[in-house]
Amino acid sequence: MKTFKNPVIPGFYPDPSVCRVGGDYYLVTSSFEYFPGVPIFHSKDLVNWHQLGHVLTRESQLPLARRHRPGFSQGIFAPTLRYHNGRFYMITTNMSISKNFFVWAEWPEGPWSDPVYIEGWEGIDPSLFFDDDGKVYITGTQGFQGEPEGIYQAEIDLETGKLLSERRWIWGGTGGSYPEGPHLYKINGWYYLMIAEGGTEYGHMVTIARSRTPYGPYESNPNNPILSNRSTSKPIQATGHADLVQAEDGSWWAVFLGIRPIPFTKRHNLGRETCLAPVWWTEEGWPVIGNNGKAELEHDAGNLPVGEPAAWNPRDDFDGQELSPVWVFYRNPTPGSWSLAERPGWLTLRGQAATLNDTGSPAFVGRRQQHRNCEIMVLMEFEPYEEGEEAGLVVFMNELFHYEIVKTFEGGTSKLVLRRRVGSMRQTDAEIEYKDPAVILGVKADDYSYTFFYARPGGEPVELGEGETAFLTSEVANGFTGVVMAMYATGNGKTCRSPAHFDYFHYRQLEERTV
Ligand code: 6LW
To answer: What is the CATH topology of the domain spanning 315-509?
Structure first.
């Protein structure tokens, strides 16, 4: 029996939405305040995914200026991806401006259109459904000012982005909190409305209802939820927010988010990850996801043409003209804050006034931590000679929760410093004088700690200290993201005179890729 392992896309890739075009599958996920936004992946087998790039690559598509207090994810919430009549549509919410919009493209690699904002449509988690009669429905999570919470729907004209009908409440779920994340499908003459309930934490679940007409009345599946790992001791928890797709052989599959708590804890640092499970249909015509409604680390792959995973490339030498799509900025990057051209073969960061603690955009190029056990290492050249200039490596959850190992210029001398911020608690863990321009900085992650080290090029690594993984978890730090490991620089209130150059970023897995 051929099997596959979950998560199929490890690391913070939540709220997956999938569509199939012939033998090709495409998938998008949420990206919150990271830029570019909405990573888009391609697969031939639903199991091995290759990132094509991002859907939202221009600031005009994704303004991320922060309006609210720190520590809470804004930006892009749950997107939906659909293909219709030669066009891909991606619809989502930008929480930084509280607007719903869609973009479209003829090719998944882009170029994607400018955003079409949907006036009169509020809330989150918008989804599109193309009916056989040519009508297009927008379905989303709403319920304001005394209205019942739940799923609302209207007809929409995708050429103009205008609503063609009144919005109507169509279902409130089965009584769980936060009925949200709807997707509508037409299967065998039924309209199926699948949603998430219970909140995106440990009570998360997927429920479904059906009707003969798009607006209902929706009849709830008597066997809801069709997926939930709540109240189990399974290694994958918080499963929910699913999307269905049918393979060419007629089999059905669901992608959904799940978390892998740190063993023996109820905390997770890698964010919500993209998982896959087979879907079965009961005789009464209701779908059941996974192992009788439970998601496992390993599932039967059925007839999926599962290929070999691509070899993991541990190292980026920054030799290309463009950054690989694995890299993201925190909010819209400030022009001049990064460059691959300034020193060819190196990534150059120029520290801005914004620090890691601000709601602006620091000079920051990072990638998701995708494995609980891994090691990252960079070779940095940085010669600060103005007070407060610093550059280094950060293990980042949000601006209130991060640990960093940096080279900085303080009190007239340059030093290596290890420090942490855990909410309002800030601490310097280690400080040593370090004058050489070049330094190797590294972090080794395991289930319970991040261990920081440095080395002189050609020298032995020296440990500077460690910090708990527990504080860099969603349960402690809030928000909807997972840990991002980044190179960064800051002038602590002004632009740095000295650039920081990174020769490579090495990311080594210390465990099997998907376990
Ligand atoms: C998303 C909502 C949810 O909009 O979390 O898990 C929110 N589900 O549907 C952010 O990811």
So the answer is: Jelly Rolls (2.60.120)
